Amino acid sequence: MPAFPYLRLQLMVFALVSAAFTNIYLAQPVLPMVQAQFGIDIAGVSWAVSAVILGMALANLPFGLLVDRWPIQPIILVGGLMVAGAGLVCALTDSFPVLIAARFVQGLFIPALTTSIAAYLGKTLPIEKLSVVMGSYVAATVLGGLGGRLMGGWLFPADDWRYAFMATAILTVLTTVIAVVGLPKPSNAGPHVKSTLSYGQLLAQWPLVRYFICAAGSFAVFSSVFNYLPFRLADAPFGWSTEATTTLYLVYIMGIFMAPLAGRWSVRFGSRATLVAGSLVLLLALLLLQLASLIAVVVGLTAVCAGFFCVHAAAVGALNRSLTSGHGRANALYVLFYYVGGWLGISLNGLLYQHWGWTGVIGLSLLLVLIPLTVGLTERRHPA
């Protein structure tokens, strides 16, 4: 890659990935309002979020392969336009099935802006610059997730959630155009070696699969808590407005600090200790969220973010340190399990919430936390 202003590249990556992640969680804080407008049950309305995650899970591996065969610019262009176009459909439709179909289409093409750009950076940048620019990528996933929640339930009135979809569609188009015009073409010459490991060969290695399952279990808990918390806080004894509930999502920004900190802990103390510590924090957080107390909710939600990002950073770090080749495909599988776990968590907890309310969500989440806890307890004792 020729001399290039890396700050400019960081900003483009940050903007594009932030816009992509804003689309994912845009509907989360306004689910009660969407439910009321379309007259459907809680399990049904949860598909406004889980359909996106399912689409991402299905499309992640294909886009991971496609970016090895095609230039990045047309992939980003098509992906960005499809995500934005489907977002406009969500804003304009009066049919709930059409809204869910459009959200699923968004999920199918969001990997064109996330998985593809990560693979592009991996094969474009020299090693000494890769970690710096990827730092912008990780920060963008956190702030994009926060931005989607704030856009949907705070920047626009909850009754006008459709305007949030329109604004996000415009943002997606703008960042897509900037990236298509500004991203440099990758050079085939570089320090990165093409892996011959297949997805099947990676899945046959149980030490790696453990980290994939860890990602699925922890994200199932995290996504379910954030998805159904608005319903919990809208009911007695809280009776919160959508705007008040959305303000709590500011704790999500903790991921910017916790993820790199957990990575350093994992190197210093070992992935075993870090995974166990993060899982125990998650367990405590879920117990606090069961209490009918404002302080318990604030502290519990903050602890959910701290525990999740601790587990997530430790698992993905341990995965990459255990690899000698196949990093790209292994990380694609990690992301696949991650989002399948989120989709399953949201879907199953939607059914539980209908029958047992918030207690059902907390009960299943407590069981799911046992997955990363078990992975941590069975991890090697020395740093890995």
TrEMBL record:
TM spans (from-to): 7-27, 47-67, 74-94, 100-122, 134-157, 163-184, 208-229, 249-267, 274-292, 298-319, 331-352, 358-378
Keywords: Cell membrane, Membrane, Transmembrane, Transmembrane helix, Transport
Originating species: Reinekea forsetii
InterPro entries associated with the record: MFS, MFS_dom, MFS_trans_sf
Localization per record: Cell membrane
Xref: Gene3D superfamilies: MFS general substrate transporter like domains (1.20.1250.20)
Chief site of localization: membrane
Recorded GO CC terms: plasma membrane
Protein name per UniProt: MFS transporter
